[in-house]
Amino acid sequence: MKKVIILDHPLIQHKLTMLRDKKTDVKVFREIVEELSNLMAYEVTRDIPLKDIKIETPIARTTGKIIAGKKMAIVTILRAGLGMAGGILRLIPSAKVGHIGIYRDPETLKPVCYYAKLPQDIDKRDIIIVDPMLATGGTAVAAIEYVRRFTKSHIRFMCLVAAPEGIKMVRKYFKEVRIYTATVDEGLNEHAYIVPGLGDAGDRLFGTK
Fold first, then answer.
1. Annotated catalytic, 30?
2. Cβ(132)–Cβ(203) under 8 Å?
3. The pLDDT of residue 107
4. Which residues, 6+ apart, have CB-to-CB distance to 157 below 8 Å?
5. Confidence of residue 1 (pLDDT cuts 50, 70, 90)
6. Under a CB-based contact definition with an 8 Å cutoff, are residues 102 and 79 in contact?
7. Active-site residue, from 20, 123, 148, 203
């Protein structure tokens, strides 16, 4: 299976365009991030293993399918990843949620971890790490490295917008991690913002600057 999966469903692309528009206000932006995350989660979880189970419908006995294997954990990269967790939880309400606080130093552009709290049974769960933007890739790599300290479980990385530079960085250090995104944009500008991107996802989610 490909390691970079672009989710080009028409509804996903339509909502992504609404996110990009600078006229989209905080309330609508927040709602669309959650909706997009919910839609994308269907594809991110497409390869979850199933097993057969015998059941009885009101009409007859039959064999159905249920999810087998490990349960899921969502690990959000603060702050912007918080906006994505709700949409995934609507699809997978039994998932546990961890948080990793990482910011990018404005001078060095290097990731700095300031907070981390993961589910105690993280090693028994498959993991989706979420962040709206995959820009330089430094934050994503730092988050994956931290999670890898506690588990060898399957890790997926899910973002709304990715830059080629960020994809290259994650692939350099973690070739086994699949990246799911709604789009791969042109690249980064001199301030390491994705072009055309959608601006600072955290500021647009929470109304800050």
1. no
2. no
3. 80
4. 128, 129, 130, 131, 134, 140, 144, 170, 177, 178, 179, 180
5. low
6. no
7. 203
Residue type, 188: L
User: Counting every residue, how long is the chain?
Assistant: 209
Q: What percent of the chain has pLDDT over 70?
A: 99
User: Which helix (H) or strand (E) covers residue 179, if one does?
Assistant: strand 178-181
Which residue in 25, 57, 108, 149 is the catalytic one?
108
**Is 203 a residue of the active site?**
yes
Mean pLDDT calculated for residue range 7-32: 96
Opening angle at CA 192, ends 196 and 44, nearest 5: 65
Strands 96-104 and 71-78, by their bridges, are: parallel
Q: What is the pLDDT of residues 180-205, one digit of tens each?
A: 999 999 999 998 899 999 999 999 99
61: annotated active-site residue: no
Active site includes 104? yes
Q: Which of 20, 104, 148, 171 is catalytic?
A: 104
Res. 75: pLDDT tops 70: yes
- The answer to whether 179 touches 162, Cβ cutoff 8 Å, is yes
pTM of the complete model beyond 0.90: yes
